Amino acid sequence: MKVDKVLVPLDGSPLAEMALPTAIELVRDSPDATLILLRAVEATTLPGIDPIEAQVAVVGEAESYLEGVAARLRDEGRSGVITSVWYSGAAEAIVDAARMCGVDMIVMSTHGRSGLRRVVLGSVAESVLHLTRTPILLVSAGGQLEASLGNGRVTRKASGRAHSVLTSAGPLGPARRR
Q1: Contact 78, 107 (CB under 8 A)
Q2: What is the pTM of this model?
């Protein structure tokens, strides 16, 4: 599987940035590859207060954050880094951006919660898995990788590098929704 365009959703946290090394590794041998750094934002305001100022503020903060991350990657020699801020819920923004930008892969981090904690707290990664056909590579907080070929199911878990996960997942063929 050739990966030329990778979407990396970031929320400003160190956990989210754990996906960056894996995304960079995926495109390491493709100098013309593009990394799309995505941040989804929404402003919350009290009822009766004009939300425009808060909306402009969260978008501006997101743009500044993403440009800082992109500049750091460019300083490390990675060209082809672009940023994109979406005013939307995280899962919806990730799915829509992946579709509209025609990405080959979504690489994102996850807390790796399970059981009741996952049910109560929800999971952006879980929502994205169910809403997209784009292949996803999840990097858990513990450094474990999980791959999905876009069918909403995890196909392989590994502690190794992303390349080994993609190589072993590749022969499964095109993903189909059930």
Answers
A1: no
A2: 0.79
Domains and CATH numbers, the chain: 5-172 (3.40.50.620)
With a CB cutoff of 8 Å and minimum separation 6, the contacts of 151 are 133, 175, 176, 177, 178
List alpha helices for the chain, DSSP H: 14-17, 20-26, 52-75, 90-101, 115-121, 124-131, 162-169
Residue 75 neighbours by CB distance under 10 Å: 8
For helices 90-101 and 124-131, angle between their N-to-C axes, nearest 10 degrees: 40
Task: For 29-66, write each residue's pLDDT tens digit.
Answer: 888 999 999 999 999 988 988 899 999 999 999 999 99
Write down how long the chain is.
Answer: 178
